[in-house]
Write a structure and sequence with these properties.
By secondary structure, chain A is of the alpha+beta class. Chain A has three helices and three strands. Chain A has one domain. By secondary structure, chain B is of the alpha+beta class. The N terminus of chain B is likely disordered. Classes of the chains: A alpha+beta, B alpha+beta.
C-alpha cells in the first residue's frame, strides 16, 4: 500500500471550523454513494493539539483516499452544502486556495 | 485474547448484506469470562427500529425482574440507529440503556457523539455488555478486532485523562473515540454518568455506576467501514429537502449565534429558572444581570463545536481567562447548566457554570445529581433542618461556589456527607428525615432541573416519563416559546394550545406525540434538536419515515413509525411495572409544585392543583389505554400492539391494567 504521508495533499488551519466532520461524510457520498470518512478528499483533524481544527484536502487518489474533483457535475461542492453556516464562507475560500497551492505545501492564510 | 470466529453464514442467519443502513451486527460481550459473540441486527431491526428501541426490548427480555442495577446479570447496551453515521439531519446520536440506578426502572440516556459514527463504521449497531470483569478493563473495538484490555492503570483517572491515556496507548489521536466513566462511576455514585471523549454525557439514569459495577472503565472504538443506504438518490433528496427548514427557523438562528443558553432571557421572562431549589422561578434582577450569557459568550468563546450531520451546531468551546477558574478549557453546554448552578444553587457567576460542567464531566457525574442534592441540602440548611454537625463542619449556603465544589468532590468519592448526597435528593431526604422530603425536588427518585409550575405539558411530560423526570422523553418545549406557527402546530399536534403554558387542554395529546417522537429519534439515531420537538417546522414522523424508507429500502409510513414507537413506549412502561412499584402515585409533580403559587414574575400566583392534575392524568392514561386507577397498560392496549407476551407477563404478577 502506498504511504499516505507521500500523497499530494494540502493542510490548512481552520480557526472557525466547528469540527463536525459532516463534510467528510458528504464527500464520501459524492464519490461512492455511501458514507465512509476514510475515502473522502477532505479530512478534519485537531490542529496541533489546540482547540482549533485543521482541514486537509487530498489532491491525488491513493491509499483509500479519492482526489478532490471539486464535485464535478454538481452545482457546487457537496462539502459546502453540509458545512455549518458559521464556517461555510471560509471553507469556500480554502477550496479555491487548495487548487493552486504547491505540492505538499502548508500554506498560511 | 483470541477472537472466537463466529460466522453468521455458518449459523444460517441473515448476513450483513441483507440489511441496508444498519451496520448489521450486534456485539455481545460477557465481561465475566471475556467471551464475545456476534448477533445479527436484523433479528430486531424491523420491529424495534434500532437504537434505544431495540435495546429496550432486549432489556425487557433478558433482565429478570429481580436483577438489581449493579448486579453482573444486568445488561448495559450501547446503541446507534439506522440513520446514525449518515447525513440525515442530527444523525450522530447514540444511546445507553440499562436498569436505571436512580429508579430501578427504565434507564435510557443518549448523546450526540463521534463515538456513534465510529462504532457504526466498525460494523456494530449495538454492544451488549453483561457480567462483571474480575479486574478493571476497557473494551477496544478496531473494526473487527475486538479486545478486552487491562485498565488497572486507568482506574481512578478522570474521564478526560482516560480519553487522553487511551488515545496515547493505542497510538491514534484523531480517529479513536471513547466513552468512559470517572471516579463517580467507579464509586457507584447513584447519579454517575458516562462521558463521550471529554464532553457529552449520557447523563441521567446513573449508567456510570452500572458501568463501574461491571469493572468497565471505557469503550474505545475506531471504524473504517461504509454505511450503505438502499436508495442513495432518494435518501439524499430527502436530506436536502429537510435541510431547507433549518436556516428559516428563528430558534436555529439563535442556537447558531449563541448556543442553547441563548434562551436565557426567554427563561427569565417565562418563569423558567429553578432559583434556590425552585423556591422562585425568576432570578432577582441583580443576579440575572450577573449571569449575562451573551457577555459570557463574547468574552470566553473559542469556537463553535458541531457534531456530524448537525444542521445547526449548538455547542461551544470556551477558554476561561480570568477569575478563580482561569485556564479552564472546556466544551460548552446547554441552558441546564445555567439553570442548575447559577439558578438552583444561586451562584451568581457564569464562569462557575462552565467550571462545574467541566468538573462533573471529569468526575463522570450527571450535573443534575450534585445540583439536585446540594440544592436540597442548601434549602434544608436555610430552614434549619440540616446543620454543620450533620455535614462534617461544612456550611451549605446559597451561592457558595467553593462549598459546592467541595461537596461535588465528596459526592464523587462518596466521602462523609457526600455519600448521602450521592444517592440523589429523594434518597438523601429519606436518610435524613426531619420532614426534608418536602424539599426534595424529584420525580420517581431522579433529581429535577425541570421547572414545572408554569408549563403544564412540560410538567406532565417530565412527570410521566418512564425513566423518571427529565424533559427529553415527552415534555414539549413549545409552551414557553411566544412565537410559534399555530397552523403548523395544529397540523402536527392537533391542538391549538401548543404555546399556552397555563391551560390543561390538549396537553396530554401533545405529550403523547412527543413521547413517540423522542423514541423515534432515539431509535433511529437522530438528535432531538433537529426534530419538531424544537421547532414545529423541523422533521417529524412523515419526514423521518421518508428518510428511513430510503435508507433501509423498507417502505415505511409515518403511521408505521408511530405504531413502532408506541410499542417501544409500552415495553418501557411494562419494564417499570414488572420491576418496580411505580404507578399512578409516582406521576405527580413534587408537592411544592402542587402547593405553592409562583412568587413573582409573569406567572406570579399560578400553580397546578392536585384536582386538575388528577383530571390530566385520567385523560393521559385513557389516551394510552392504560388503567386510570393504577396507570398499568391494559390487555387491549398491549395486544393491539402485538405485545401479548407482555400482557401475559403482567397478568401473572397481578399487574395488568383493567380496562
Amino acid at each position: 500500500m502506498e504511504n499516505i504521508d507521500l500523497i499530494d495533499k494540502v493542510t490548512y488551519e481552520a480557526e472557525t471550523c466547528t469540527g463536525c466532520r459532516s463534510c467528510e461524510l458528504a464527500c464520501s457520498f459524492h464519490h461512492a454513494k455511501h458514507f465512509q470518512r476514510g475515502i473522502s478528499s477532505i479530512m478534519i483533524t485537531p490542529f496541533k493539539n489546540s482547540l482549533n481544527n485543521a482541514i486537509t484536502f487530498y489532491r491525488e487518489s491513493a491509499a483509500n483516499r479519492i482526489a478532490c474533483d471539486m464535485c464535478k457535475g454538481l452545482e457546487k461542492p457537496i462539502c459546502l452544502i453540509f458545512c455549518p453556516a458559521t464556517f461555510r464562507e471560509e471553507l469556500e475560500k480554502l477550496l479555491k486556495a487548495h487548487l493552486s497551492a504547491p505540492r505538499d505545501g502548508v500554506p498560511q492564510l | 485474547m483470541a477472537f472466537p470466529n463466529y460466522s453468521l453464514e455458518r449459523e444460517g442467519e441473515m448476513t450483513k448484506r441483507d440489511i441496508y443502513s444498519y451496520a448489521g451486527m450486534i456485539l455481545r460481550v460477557n465481561l465475566g469470562d471475556g467471551s464475545f459473540i456476534y448477533e445479527p441486527t436484523a433479528k430486531y431491526a424491523r420491529e424495534w427500529l434500532g437504537g434505544s428501541g431495540t435495546a429496550q426490548w432486549i432489556l425487557y427480555n433478558e433482565v429478570k425482574p429481580w436483577v438489581a442495577p449493579y448486579d453482573p446479570a444486568n445488561r448495559l447496551i450501547f446503541s446507534v440507529g439506522p440513520l446514525t453515521g449518515t447525513l440525515a439531519p442530527g444523525g450522530s446520536r447514540m444511546s445507553g440503556d440499562s436498569i436505571n440506578a436512580m429508579t430501578n426502572g427504565v434507564g435510557s440516556s443518549n448523546i450526540d457523539s463521534f463515538f456513534a459514527g465510529q462504532l457504526k463504521a466498525a460494523g456494530f449497531d449495538h454492544i451488549i455488555l453483561q457480567g462483571r470483569a474480575r479486574k478493571p478493563v476497557y473494551l477496544w473495538i478496531d473494526d473487527d478486532h475486538i479486545e478486552i484490555k487491562d485498565a488497572s492503570h486507568l482506574w481512578g483517572l478522570t474521564t478526560w485523562e482516560t480519553a487522553d491515556a487511551i488515545r496515547a496507548e493505542l497510538g491514534d489521536e484523531k480517529e479513536i473515540f471513547t466513552i468512559s466513566i470517572g471516579p463517580a462511576g467507579e464509586n457507584l455514585v447513584r447519579g454517575s454518568c458516562i462521558i463521550q471523549h471529554k464532553g457529552r454525557a449520557m447523563g441521567r439514569c446513573g449508567l456510570g455506576g452500572v458501568m463501574g459495577s461491571k469493572n468497565l472503565k471505557a469503550v474505545a472504538v475506531r471504524g473504517s467501514g461504509a454505511i450503505e443506504v438502499a436508495d442513495p438518490n432518494r435518501f439524499m433528496e430527502a436530506v436536502l429537502k429537510m435541510k431547507e427548514s433549518y436556516p428559516k427557523s428563528k430558534t436555529a438562528i439563535l442556537y447558531e449565534k449563541l448556543g442553547i443558553p441563548g434562551i436565557t432571557p426567554g427563561k427569565q421572562e417565562q418563569c423558567g429558572f429553578p432559583y434556590k431549589n425552585f423556591q422562585d422561578l425568576t432570578l432577582p434582577e441583580d443576579h440575572y444581570e450577573a449571569i449575562n450569557y451573551e457577555k459570557f459568550v463574547n468574552k470566553y468563546q473559542v469556537r463553535v463545536q458541531g457534531y456530524p450531520a448537525c444542521p445547526m451546531p449548538c455547542s461551544r468551546h470556551f477558554r476561561i481567562s480570568d477569575g478563580n477558574y482561569a485556564g479552564l478549557e472546556t466544551e460548552g453546554f446547554w441552558f441546564e447548566q445555567f439553570a442548575n448552578f447559577c439558578g438552583k444553587l444561586a451562584v451568581a457567576d457564569t464562569r462557575f457554570a462552565a467550571k462545574m460542567n467541566a468538573y462533573c464531566n471529569q468526575l463522570g457525574l450527571d450535573i443534575d445529581l450534585p445540583s439536585g442534592s446540594i440544592a436540597w441540602a442548601m434549602e434544608c440548611f436555610q430552614r434549619g433542618l440540616l446543620t454543620q454537625e450533620d455535614t462534617g463542619g461544612i456550611k451549605i449556603e446559597w451561592g457558595d461556589a467553593n462549598a459546592v465544589l467541595e461537596l461535588t468532590r465528596m459526592i464523587a468519592y462518596r466521602e462523609g456527607f457526600g455519600a448521602i448526597l450521592a444517592e440523589g435528593c429523594a434518597k438523601a431526604a429519606e436518610i435524613l428525615g426531619r420532614g426534608s422530603d418536602y424539599y426534595a425536588m424529584h420525580v420517581k427518585g431522579q433529581d429535577l432541573y425541570e421547572v414545572m409550575r408554569p408549563a403544564i405539558a412540560w410538567a406532565l411530560g417530565s412527570c410521566v416519563s418512564t425513566r423518571g423526570g427529565g424533559h427529553t422523553t415527552g415534555a414539549p418545549v413549545s409552551e414557553t416559546i411566544a412565537a410559534i406557527d399555530q397552523e403548523k402546530a395544529f397540523e402536527v399536534l392537533g391542538v391549538r394550545t401548543a404555546n399556552d403554558p397555563l391551560v390543561y387542554e390538549g396537553k396530554a395529546q401533545m405529550v403523547s406525540y412527543f413521547e413517540g417522537l423522542h423514541r423515534l429519534g432515539n431509535a433511529l439515531g437522530i438528535c432531538h434538536f433537529t426534530t419538531s420537538w424544537l421547532d414545529i417546522a423541523f422533521q417529524g414522523f412523515p419526514e423521518m419515515a421518508e428518510l428511513y424508507s430510503a435508507a433501509t429500502g423498507w417502505e415505511t409510513s409515518a403511521e408505521d413509525l408511530k405504531r413502532a414507537t408506541k410499542k417501544i413506549f409500552n415495553v418501557e412502561k411494562a419494564f417499570n411495572v414488572r420491576r418496580t412499584n411505580l404507578g399512578r402515585k409516582d406521576d405527580y409533580p413534587p408537592p411544592r409544585v402542587l402547593n405553592e403559587p409562583i412568587p413573582s414574575g409573569k406567572y406570579a400566583g399560578f400553580h397546578p392543583t392536585r384536582e386538575n392534575w388528577d383530571k390530566l392524568l385520567d385523560e393521559y392514561y385513557e389516551m394510552n389505554r392504560w388503567d386510570k386507577k393504577t396507570s398499568f397498560p391494559t390487555r387491549e392496549c398491549l395486544e393491539d400492539l402485538n405485545l401479548k407476551q407482555i400482557a401475559d407477563d403482567l397478568e401473572k404478577i397481578g399487574k395488568l391494567g383493567r380496562s
